[in-house]
Amino acid sequence: MFEFLRYDGTKRIRGSIYLSAGMAALAAMVIWVYPSFSDSFDGDDLLEAYPPQLIQVFDVETMASIEGFLAFELYVFGWVILLGLYMAYSAAGVIADDVDRGRMDTLLAMPVSRPRLLAEKFAALAVPIVLVNVLVPPVILVSIRLIDESIALADLAAIHLFAIPYLFACAGIGLLCSVAFDRTGVAQRVALGGTFALFLVESLLEGTQYEAVGAIAPMRYFDPNEILLESVYDPVGAAVLIGMTLVLVGASTVWFVRKDV
Amino acid sequence: MAAIELDGLTKDYGDVLANDDLTFEVETGEIFGYLGPNGAGKTTTIRTLLGFISPTGGSARVLGHDITDRSALIEAKRRIGYLSDEPGFDEDATGTEILDLHAAVKGGERRDELIELFEPPLDRPVRDYSRGNVQKLGLVTTFMHDPDLVVLDEPTSGLDPLLQQRFAEFLREEKRNGVTVFFSSHVLSEVRRLCDRVGIIREGRLATIEPIDALLERTGKSVRIHADESIPLDALDVAGVHDLETAGRNGETTDAFTECTFTFTGDINTLLGRLGEYTLLDLSIEEAPLEDVFLQFYGER
User: Fold this and answer.
1) Contact at 8 Å (CB) between B140 and B99?
2) ipTM of this predicted complex?
3) Pick from B52, B74, B88: CB nearest A101
4) Does A103 contact B77 at a Cβ distance shorter than 8 Å?
5) What are A6-21's pLDDT values in tens digits?
6) What is the mean pLDDT of residues B128-141?
7) CA B48/CA B37 separation, integer angstroms
8) Which of A19, A55, A179, B247 has most Cβ atoms within 10 angstroms of its Cβ?
């Protein structure tokens, strides 16, 4: 058991460390510019100059505190969008890439069921998802101390904890694309497009009569502003994300079991 | 019990009928050659038997397990080795890492012995492998868990002649140990060297299934004659001469020749008896290429 999880997981470690380094660099840079940013503007002066559509799309609440600044510049942009898209993209290769490159025959010739193969390969995505959320927070914490600001440790821990089910849900979208399309390039493009479309649907429809449509987007259930500004944690949202992930993995499994590879 | 049984196995892609009502058996302990031109449906049959694609009609059993019963097929795969026509391995992994994965999943009691025999480069990533090296690694993964049935799709493609020879000896030894081999090929010399029986598939249908000796008899030889004198065409009026092409000296006559080629399915002694009266510069009698066999079998029909 778990041979494929171990194999794929091990293979993902190196890339996940590079990914974490990249996200840590982004975090350090955002935190580094914060003092000069907050000195140049009083309160939310700058925010008022932004087009309201942009503020809505990126769910910007305030930039007058380090928490608000981080919530937008780092978490909405870096975690919700960048990492969400990256996980969808990564997961889109999980099955399609092996089919595309003729490796699936070699794998399926072994005594392994398709549901097990798919589940183990998907579970191996825990490596980047967990590593980036474990390795980056200390860098954020130290960076904030270096600019003489502070952030509630519990909030920082919570945002990275709740990011995990969110990123798994995004990966689930990619996984479904991965079984739906045999060509990796197509699967990855659809996964990227689909995930970004969900982000737009969720943020643009907010406050309209179609707001309910946004309920299908994982982004609805992970709100960095809420966690960092109000210390409100949403376990129900996390449960919805876990449920969403299970549904996506389940649908992918049914599809993969039935399809000709 | 037959190692492989196909009963009306059909795969219809809508626009292409890749396998059309295939029914045959591969006996336990035999080496069965599955032949056919490119696109005939050989790989489709193999991939259906292993459950990669689902049949649209009929049924099949491997080692007694129904191929449409997913858990039964997984059980069967513990005792099956498979080498695809284009073995695909993780390009970033080294040979050792790939063999470790295979050993962990299905066992690898014969790994060391096979590495010694086929000598795949183990420390380099697969990305840097030549086609032949990928094939060597594939052969190790196919046999490392000591399977009872091996399914090989073009097993010697990419192997140099020395390794082809080594592989042939190895396969014969496996047969002596009771292993059943089902393999597809283009190469008649390989089929002839190894197979007990052959099945020929054309446009998805089984054209013939017979012992290799019977096939070879029908296949005939490719004969080339270069004579020092003009030989009258009548000399070749022997049963079994097909596709005769001749050339005369300075293009002089049409009822005599100095050079000729033809396919011969008759008695070689009769032919040599006829040619004995003439002075020849060269004479070659070779096995006909498989393509010619196909042409001979179906081309004119």
Assistant:
1) yes
2) 0.88
3) B88
4) no
5) 999 999 999 999 999 9
6) 95
7) 18
8) A179
